[in-house]
Amino acid sequence: MKSSDRKTSSVPLRIVGLRLALCTSLGLIPAAVLAQEASLYAPPPPSDAAAVRVVPAGAGAIIQVGAVTLQAKPGFPSGYRHVKQGQIPVKVGGQAVAKPFVAGRYYSLVAGNFGREKFRVFADPKPSLSKATVVFYNLSAMDGVSLKTADGKITLQQNVAHGVSVSREVNPLRVGFAVYQGAKKLGTVAPLQLRRGASLGIFLTQAGAPQVFTAPGASVGN
Question: Which helix (H) or strand (E) holds 21?
């Protein structure tokens, strides 16, 4: 599967646990918690620009996109920066390759060993106005990994190959996640409030031991 291939499903995510569903629907989650998690999501870029960030595939990374320099520490993607649309040179180390960037879109740039190129550009999916979007990036060297709910009962993505991102639209509920390879749990994500019209990135990297972390993605509307 190529890096540009993505599976998108509109099948609702059924969250197991009546208590969790009731708390969400009745607004019992503290307002301060919701406000803090809402601030994680990035606003849309200007109409003539794209939003780009750097995601570390293991070690930290520095990537230059045109005149914009982006730096990320292990486990912590950079914030989004805006670049003008069009063909823009992307520089990693001594390598520079021109890549197309479309206005209004979000891109995740990952530094790593991708054959002849020292980085890979992921064009992230545009979120649905009615659903939340979960994007899973397998940036490890492992194949056959799966993204599930934290209890392991519901599979969102199965048998994801390395170097690939896949997405799925889900209901905007509060939920945790876990990443598996077969029956082995590689890492977990603490419960987060998923937002309608916004996406959440879940990343699996491997610098020694596998690591799972999250970062906000694209958003549309308010």
Answer: helix 18-26
